[in-house]
Amino acid sequence: MSSPRAAVDVGSNSVRLLVVDGDGARVTREMTVTRLAQGVDRTGRLDDDALERTVATIAGYRDIWRAHGVDDRVRIAATSAVRDASDRDRFFDAVRAATGVDAEVLSGTEEAALSFGGATGAVDVAAPSAVVDIGGGSTELIVGTPDGAIAGSVSLQLGCVRLTERCLADDPPSAVEVHQAREFVTARLDEGDAALTTQGTAVGDAAALIAVAGTATTLGALHLGLDTYEEAAIHATRIPAAAVVDLAAMLAAQPLSARQGLGPMQPGRAEVIHGGAIVLAEIVRRYGFDEVIVSESDSLDGLAASLA
């Protein structure tokens, strides 16, 4: 039997840990919002407080994986915020000092492949499928082939933290701000379509759309009317396209205090959920999907599987 292993996904909005046993079965899964991307879009540098929060969270995860018998089979992978930061070495040095593990930065292509593999292996949908991974700083669009391979992928400078910081300053956002946010999303999707065309594919070629990461899973919880965040109930939830658009409009119209009071809203998510919801609503609207299938399995599961 193989030894247990641990994967840490350092996203632009949250840091997540997955520990699996030697057979690949889940032992524990954790998530903490640290908003590492705070200010990166504006300054190009990591915010001191955000970096401190993130490293402290990873250090806490180290204690968890060690308690579960994980020794050297650990992978710590960062995404958009660290990719974009000119001072990313501060992150690497701090993580190494806190855990003894050398972190890495995933390229947009690597992140997309991990998300696609994690999602399509966990939900039963028609092929070819497309996967959308809305992160804090970037959004990955991945289109599959009928036999389950990747036909093409693109990583966009578009995420719930980035969009909120750029366009949604008021509380609640004004109609003008929401319009500007939708225009920003449209411009990035134009870029994505052009990139996918050069790869010989298009999001519209897909028969189904799977959405992963915190924006999508939280919208799934809200659609189900859950009082608390229940991962087992959320996984594989199908949200009709009209419901996605309605949820985005509702969240954008609410002040932060109201979003924070929603039952399944996890700590730190309310500040940026309306930005992420706008992204998903525009994707559904643009490509004409009837529904979105939510998957709790994503790039984090792909990271853990890569250690097998």
Would you kindly provide a written description of the structure presented here, covering whatever features stand out?
The longest helix has 24 residues, at 175-198. The chain has 13 helices and eleven strands. With 308 residues, it is of the alpha/beta class. A hairpin with a 3-residue loop joins β1 (5-10) and β2 (14-20). The model has no long low-confidence stretch (mean pLDDT 94). The radius of gyration is 18 Å and the shape is globular. The chain has helices spanning 40-43, 48-67, 80-84, 89-99, 108-120, 160-167, 175-198, 214-224, 231-234, 241-253, 256-260, 273-287, 299-306; strands spanning 5-10, 14-20, 26-33, 74-78, 104-105, 129-134, 139-144, 150-156, 208-212, 238-240, 291-295.
List the helices and strands and how they pair.
Layout: E1 5-10, E2 14-20, E3 26-33, H1 40-43, H2 48-67, E4 74-78, H3 80-84, H4 89-99, E5 104-105, H5 108-120, E6 129-134, E7 139-144, E8 150-156, H6 160-167, H7 175-198, E9 208-212, H8 214-224, H9 231-234, E10 238-240, H10 241-253, H11 256-260, H12 273-287, E11 291-295, H13 299-306
Parallel strand pairs: 1-4, 4-5, 6-9, 9-11
Antiparallel strand pairs: 1-2, 2-3, 6-7, 7-8, 10-11
The radius of gyration is 18 Å
Quickly name the level 1 CATH class of the largest domain. Alpha Beta
User: Which structural class fits the helix and strand makeup?
Assistant: alpha/beta
What CATH calls the topology of the largest domain is: Nucleotidyltransferase, domain 5
Topology as H/E string? EEEHHEHHEHEEEHHEHHEHHHEH
Strand percent estimate: 15-25%
Estimate percent helicity: 40-55%
Low-confidence stretches: none
Q: What number of domains?
A: 2
Count of helical stretches:
13
Across the major sheet, the strand order is 8-7-6-9-11-10
- Assign an overall shape: globular
Named CATH architecture of the largest domain: 2-Layer Sandwich
